[in-house]
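Continuing the batch. This is chain 6 of the set; chains 1 through 5 are on the previous pages. Same settings as before, nothing changed between runs. Recording input and output for traceability.
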Amino acid sequence: MTAPEASNKGSLWRTARAVGWSFFGVRKNSAFQDDVSKLNPLHIIAVGLIAVMLFVGGLILLVRWVVAT
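Output for chain 6:
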């Protein structure tokens, strides 16, 4: 593997950041196009599912806390 190939691959941090910005709903088109060309779709799906589970779990904990008080 050469250095240019390694720089073209997306990292886990880059994937998590792209998913986070997608949850927030604000994204520059140039950043989106860059992510499309460099990130693995399976990694995006996996990180997205984990993020959804954490978000829903956080909401459930928040509701339980509010109802208990």
